[in-house]
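Please annotate the following for my students:
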Amino acid sequence: MGEKASPSLKQFSFGGCDIDNLSPAQAALTADTRILNVRVNFEEALKLHLAIGECIRRLIRPRTPRVDEVGT
């Protein structure tokens, strides 16, 4: 009875891309890292651009309830 509910897993994605090179190296990243250089090819850059755009649109769009959230 005293068990906590497990956290819900993310059920969506905005997409992503494959990275060619990352500087500084991932192992060297800290909370104080101020600049991150990411190298991607043109096609992957387009995917990243679309993913970021979708994320921003989701943030600025007013949230509408899903069909299963609407009371009957």
About this structure: Strands lie at 21-23, 37-39.
